[in-house]
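#lab-general

N.A. 3:47 PM
ok so I finally got the sequence cleaned up, no stray characters, all 404 residues accounted for. can someone with queue access submit it? mine expired

B.Y. 3:52 PM
send it over

N.A. 3:53 PM
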Amino acid sequence: MIRAYTFLMRPTVGQAAALGEMLRDHCGLYNGALQERRDAYRHISKTSIKYGQQSAQLKEIRAFDPERQGRWSFSSQQATLRRLDTAFAAFFRRITSGDTPGYPRFRGVDWFDTVDFPKDGDGCRWDSTPHDQQTRVRFQGVGHVKVNQHRPVVGKVKTVSVKRQGRKWFVVLTAEQTQPEPLPATGSVVGIDMGIVSFLTTSGGEHVANPRHARKAAAKLEAAQHKLSRVGRLRRDKRTANHQRAVQRVADLHRKVRRQRLDHAHKTALGLVRDHDLIAHEDLRIRNMLRSPAPKPNPEQPGSFLPNGAAAKAGLNRSISDAGWGVFLTILHAKAESAGRDVIAVDPRNTSRTCPECGHVAAENRPTQEKFHCVGCGHQAHADIVGASNVLRAGLARRQAQPA
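B.Y. 4:20 PM
back already:
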């Protein structure tokens, strides 16, 4: 199996400047390759350029511009071109499936924050035997950079990536490891119901509170964004120190919320994996849930629209995004795979409207957000617990139906 490790780097002032130049030059390579593809399709009878053709030009590009392109690793530049090729492949895949395409866009220097090295030892070198208790990683054109290695790297390092987040630099490693021993069986199974009021509710009746990290930081974010807007209006030059500090403040607050959300997701998923052999959850289509309601034209007044609940839906969308269901489910599946646990996704339709006692399905069974009252048999319970119980029942049925 492949596991990723992320460590904070501590470059010197000169090394930080060199890392910034590396990102800038790889960004220029990415944008130049994108421009070449656009021009070829528009002006040369809709010709499509592939990765192989652009990769073959790298030798000439490096010789023509040795100061900006020739100083960096050849394999890392190939990885940048593959990154563009992957973006185009995703674009055409979305067209085929009928989704919103999203044509690949040019990247600004501040938005191009990662450089990949496909192989350890080719343009980079992870020092697995640190000297003077200090781990280092070497990059071509930068030198040996100190790394704050807070845990050991298990397995053989396969790829290395440099990532910039604000003013900090990180190195991301992927290591190939043997499959770990599964955790001892507990004999317990659980179904979980994802929600807004409670982050999740288990079929056993346990409620995990929704931390609402973004809502708690909303006041600070609003003040920081207001200051950024005010500085931008007062000074047209966006490169002033005040403007840069305001931008950095907003970015730092968003990064803090993201880290808090990740920390909560990791701890919650770890608790479930340790305590249960099987975990069933709803197969949520979060992207569809976040869609805005369609406008309602007013037939009596052409050009005007009827109320469609867009403001209320926007608030719900913010709450769904703040909960971070997608991140949590991704982490849950990864931890369960490492621990030898089973995770099953089931159809979420009517899980909170089906009576677990008599099986009656009706929207009236759930009169409020928390209350479940079956109109058929009179069974009463918490609606989220009922939903989690139905999810578990569907998960067990699906596991039994799967071939051995």
